[in-house]
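Ticket opened by: R.M.
Priority: normal
Category: complex prediction / small molecule

The reporter submitted a protein together with uridine-5'-diphosphate-xylopyranose and asked that the result be attached to this ticket for the collaborator who will pick it up next week. Submitted input follows.
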Amino acid sequence: MRVTIFGTGYVGLVQAAVLADVGYDVVCVDVDPTKVERLKRGEVPIYEPGLERLVQENYAAKRLHFTTDAKHGVDHGDVQFIAVGTPPDEDGSADLKYVLAVADTIAEHMEEHRVVIVKSTVPVGTSDKVRAQLEKRLKTRERKDLTFDVASNPEFLKEGSAVADCTKPDRIIIGVASPETEQVLRELYAPFNRNHEKIIAMDIRSAELTKYAANCMLATKISFMNEIANLADILGADIERVRHGIGSDPRIGYQFIYPGVGYGGSCFPKDVQALIRTADEIKFDATVLKSVEKRNNEQKRFLVDKVMKHFNGDISGKTFAVWGLAFKPNTDDMREAPARVVMEALWKAGAKVRAFDPKAMEECHRIYGDRDDLVLCEEQDDTLEGADALIVITEWKNFQAPDYRDLKAKLKEPVIFDGRNIYDPKVVQRYGMTVYGVGRRSAA
Ligand code: UDX
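Result attached by the on-call engineer:
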């Protein structure tokens, strides 16, 4: 079986590399010639552990190819993945123009049966639209003799562990309309389905909704915990004790109940919003999802509110050391990152920022450019020079055990605002410092 993947973004590129690595002959098609040239040189545009090596090795082994030539791509693959972006349009619903353009391209060039697999995260009903687009184009070509199948195969990879997630998936969701299509996808994923059954086959609409339900459930867990943490703060309880207490119930579990400064990234914010819009379109009031989104937007301001309170409402002229810019550790991604909301609020209030992140410095510079109120420091410690206080936004490993004596000596005020509860208040206090965590009795 030969594979073609349209779109060399996060999902497309990781999937392509992992499929090539088990032996498939994979062609990746992208409309961006610069990106294609860079990939051919082995340059991976995103930071993702293990990905660059996988791309380079499989490209060298001639199992992985990159091209802008869509016709070549359509000729090549028995299966054709659509893995292009679905950016939110103005009202928050997923914009399908790239997905449908690929469907159109496939129908424009195909000369024999093709299985079209929708991998992009798309609203329920999109696979039907892909089917209609293919039919329309084949009709204008007067090639109604050509047959195709459409399948939905959502992706569940996490940034920072994308290669591992894709190589050893928890589950492989396949949405199909016929046993024949199911068979094609079963064959395709057989190398990843060894030891125990991971394939869960269902109808197309259920597969499409499964993707949103998974991300929205996780986002709900986080917003719920953030709400309880905010309550704990005011009630004088410690959310870390509460978290431990409830996580021990296997029905709740320990995962994804870490309070903090809100969720970011390319998936949760976008997917929660898109499902709210889908519900709106069918006049269904998604009250839970709307609250999840609202809580998250407010949560991103949590640290700023603490900072303002500590400095009696005036931080103009102050300088803050900021540790962590990426939306989570082990990535350089700053999409919807809480750090952006925090920094922008600090700037608005007249403060300056000295920031450090192990991977996202270039990305931060790309977003904000050169400005007087932002210094991007090469070393973590450099951020402390002349800083009034420290704000920690992402829980990178390197931030977990700082030299508190040094912090105390360098900061003008011995205060840490800890957006991820990585510091034990008792330990910090022993060094004569104060830490404001999330839901850790620091409301006063
Ligand atoms: C997520 C899903 O986990 C993945 O299955 C899906 O395919 C894409 O979306 P990702 O966006 O890469 O993956 O990151 P994830 O590790 O899930 O974290 C998302 C955000 O939630 C981060 O900002 C993280 O800091 C935050 N988070 C996570 C919390 O605030 N608390 C938690 O307990 C867990």
